[in-house]
Design brief:
27% of the residues are buried. It is built from 4 helices and 9 strands; from the N terminus they run αββαββββββαβα. It is globular. The strands form 2 sheets. Strands 6-5-8-3-2-1-9 form a 7-stranded mixed β-sheet. The protein has helices spanning 17-30, 72-77, 153-157, 168-176, and strands at residues 53-57, 60-69, 89-99, 102-103, 112-117, 123-129, 137-138, 143-150, 164-166. The protein is of the alpha+beta class. 19% of the residues lie in helices and 31% in strands.
């Protein structure tokens, strides 16, 4: 789940939980809200993008098949409830603008590597994500993309800050800037 560092306690109001449930149910019924994930905790499975994501490291090129989370609901849900992820697969989170972002691992049983990517396609930082943790994972600098991989993949494949990622979605942003 994504949470901006400045929004940590934004929605903490003294409204009783039963009223919040009733309000949410009314918003759902009227179409003004939609749940970010199914109530039964089903994992989101996005289609694999036809173009591979290619990382150029000091050891050569590494290719990953990626699912793309590019709208708020998909980004919020991310890899929640996912129990496995192939070692050559990841999820690329695409944001509308370059900004500071924060992630957490609530409802995510997989340990992950979170690769924070600048708008020019270079890796700003790589941070670990611990299963079910509600601690915010972020970097101090603004980013445009985040790639989630099975934990250990970044080290195993030689990914480091400064390495460049190539993908049509990243190239479109880099070209626009």
């Amino acid at each position: 789940m994504i949470r901006h560092p400045d929004q940590r306690d934004r929605f903490m109001h003294p409204i009783p939980s039963y009223l919040r449930i009733i309000l949410f149910a009314l918003l759902l019924a009227t179409g003004f809200a939609k749940p970010a994930f199914s109530l039964d905790g089903e994992a989101q499975m996005l289609p694999v993008h036809p173009a591979p994501l290619v990382v150029t490291t000091s050891d050569g090129e590494k290719k990953f098949s990626i699912e793309v989370a590019d709208d708020p609901a998909e980004r919020e849900r991310g890899l929640m409830f996912r129990e496995s992820l192939p070692t050559d697969r990841g999820m690329l989170f695409v944001f509308e603008s370059t900004r500071p972002v924060g992630f957490w691992m609530k409802n995510t049983p997989l340990p992950l590597d979170l690769v924070f990517i600048r708008d020019d396609g270079t890796i700003a930082a790589i941070e670990p994500g611990e299963p079910f943790s509600e601690a915010t994972i972020s970097t101090p600098q603004p980013i445009r993309f985040v790639l989630e991989l099975e934990q250990g993949t970044a080290e195993r494949t030689g990914l480091k800050p400064g390495d460049r990622l190539d993908h049509p979605l990243i190239a479109a942003v880099a070209k626009a800037n």
